[in-house]
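Board notes (copied after class):
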Amino acid sequence: MGNIQNNQNNQNNNKFSEMERVYFLLTDGDVINSNAVIDAVKSHAYNTRIFTIGIGADASRSLVENIANETEGIYKMIADSKGVDEIVIDMLTNVYK
């Protein structure tokens, strides 16, 4: 979670800090502190959209879904990494919709 906070600090000093940020998150597992991650996401949701992809059976659907929903992103769950390129391209077409 320190990386999220450090990234935000760096972005606050950026001349483009007023612009919307778009991130793509791919995960193949679960995190211990998913509520803390979702809370951190909520605090930056006003200018950040996160598109999430959960890969494999161990990916936390709740985490992937909540992060995307809190930031008006899109989420997808897939069985393995096959086809992830097509999903990312589809998500890219929805970035500014």
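Comment from the instructor: The beta strands are 21-27, 48-55, 75-78. Residues 2-12 form the longest helix (11 residues).
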